[in-house]
Structure formats: C-alpha cells, structure tokens
Amino acid sequence: MKLEKRHMARAIDVAVIGVRKGNSPFGSCIVKGGRVIAAAHNTVLQKHDATNHAEMNAIRLACRKLGSHELKGCTVYSTTEPCPMCFSAIHWAKADAIVFGTGIADVKRLGFSELTISDRRMKKDGHSKLRISSGFMKQECQELLDHWKKKNGKVY
Amino acid sequence: MKLEKRHMARAIDVAVIGVRKGNSPFGSCIVKGGRVIAAAHNTVLQKHDATNHAEMNAIRLACRKLGSHELKGCTVYSTTEPCPMCFSAIHWAKADAIVFGTGIADVKRLGFSELTISDRRMKKDGHSKLRISSGFMKQECQELLDHWKKKNGKVY
After folding, report:
1. Is A117 in Cβ contact with B125 (below 8 Å)?
2. Hey, is the C-beta of B117 within 8 angstroms of any chain A C-beta?
3. Contact list, A93 vs chain B (CB under 8 Å)
4. What is the mean pLDDT of chain B?
5. What's phi and psi for A97, nearest 5 deg?
6. Which pick of A5, A86, B99, B141 has the fewest CB atoms within 10 Å?
7. A64 vs B70: CB contact, 8 Å cut-off?
8. Which SS3 state, helix, strand or coil, does residue A78 take?
9. Closest chain B C-alpha to A52 CA, distance in angstroms
C-alpha cells in the first residue's frame, strides 16, 4: 500500500474506533515527513465538547507533540471534507495541505447538513494558500459512513 | 453599567490578562440567562495550540461547565469579530447569538490579516441562524487593541 493510502487508512481506522464508542464517523491523521504525528476521531459526544471534531483533536495533539502552534510542512488527512471550523484551524496552524475522501455533499445525505461551505470556497474567499486534494480513497471513506449509518445513523 | 456592557467588559478584562501573559489581544465571555458561564482569552502562544482562540477556549470551558456539547440559549461576547473557525464553532455549539466590538477590518490594520471572511458572510453562505451584533462597545475594544499594540504589537 502506498504511503498516502496508509495515512488515509489510519484516519479511517481511528474513525471506526470512534464510531464504536458512539461518536460521529469522522477521522483525521496529520503527517509530517512521511511520519504520522497525530491521529484522532471526533469526540463531540464522548467528551461533551462542540469543538472536538476529528481534525481539531488531531491538530491539538500534533501541536502538543511538536510543542508549537504551527504545523508547517504537515498534511492533514480527513475521511470527510473538513468543515469551515476545521478548515480554518488547519489554515491557522499553517499546515501545507488537506487531503480528504468524501465531501460535504456526501455527509449532507446522512443528515449532517449545516454550514455547507466547501473547503475550496473557504480557500478562495479567505485567500488561503492551503493545498486541497479531494476524493482521495473516496470509496473507503464512503464505506465508513455506511458502516456508521448501519450501526447508528443518528445525527446530533 | 448595563448587564450587556458588564459582559463585554468581562471579555475585555480577561483579554488584558492574556496580553499581560504575552498572548494576542482577544477575549470572550459566554452568558446564559444573564449569568457568565465562561470567560477566556486567546492562549495560542502560551499553550502552543493553534486552535486556542479566545472563543474556542470559552466554548470548551462552557461545554465543560454545562456538561453538554450544546450551548443553546447562550450569547457569546467577543472583543473582536470571531474568525471563521470561531464563528463555525459557535454555530456548531448551537449558541443563540454573537456580540462583538471591533471588526476583522480593525485587526487587519494591526497585521492579523488572514482568513478575512466576515461573520455575516459566514452566516449567509452557511445558512446559519446565529444572530450577530457588531460594533458593541467598539471604542473600549479598540482601546484593548491599542494597549496591545503599544505593549507588544508582534503578530504571530
């Protein structure tokens, strides 16, 4: 398996662990120089904290690991397109790139329908230099959503 | 002093404490039923965490206090217009309203120039129901920025 695929697989795996604990089906993994420095799933329900999206948890973990508020040279892998909160956090952290699988439209079908501003639009309107790759391992990321839908399917 | 003014004054006071510790000049205060349930300043530099804007810290604190990921019935006071990350977090937390003093344009002049998407634009594009009040105690919030500028004035 190619390195990039291993990184997204890690984000999916961590999301599956999160779903098992009753969380929403989202995972994220932050990579620097080919090495995973943080991986986290959404913990909004588990920790009763609205800010605990997968990417936010991963950023916080990565900042702690690097001892810096900057994640220069890092790529953020997300199973689903980061929401505007997470996109902005990735931008503020000065990461290089975002790679995601399923898009906002895919989770909208599941009921996650709010703040549907795409990352490309956030990038354009906010004049961000973040590189964005969409649809990476989309099928596997869709299977994660299907798995959650079958198991729970309740949107909070 | 009117209750609303007391709330914003609290956000300013906590921001001044943050500036004293070397942080950026932003404070936030979350109110429910006329009672302050959380107040926090920006701790990005102090805690080495890109996500630690004042509003994010206040939301996390309020969620912990209420034991819930939802802040229904709450108003978020911010000394400066929340950035898209914070706007989105306030939206996700299902707070009722945002009240802020200085706007994104005011801090742009100080060098905080990235992701300049206004809250009104975020609300419109994201179809958010959050109520937004701008320019509240703007002069006092501007004095906070001036105080920081005189003391430090370094943008990270």
Report:
1. yes
2. yes
3. 50-51
4. 93
5. -150, 155
6. A5
7. no
8. strand
9. 9
Active site (annotated) includes residue A143: no
**CB of B60 within 8 Å of any CB in chain A?**
yes
- ipTM for the predicted complex: 0.94
Single pTM value for the model = 0.95
The two beta strands, A74-80 and A27-32, are antiparallel
Nearest chain B Cα distance for residue A1, angstroms: 32
The edge-to-edge listing of strands for the beta sheet with A27-32 is A35-41, A27-32, A74-80, A97-102, A131-133
Separation of first and last alpha carbons in chain B? 35
Q: How many CA atoms lie within 13 A of A153 on its CB side?
A: 6
Q: Does B122 touch chain A (CB under 8 A)?
A: yes
Give the pLDDT score at A113: 61
Sheet strands (E) in A26-149:
27-32, 35-41, 74-80, 97-102, 131-133
Instruction: Please answer whether residues B29 and B62 qualify as being in contact, where contact means their C-beta atoms are separated by less than 8 angstroms.
Output: no
Give the type of residue at A27.
G
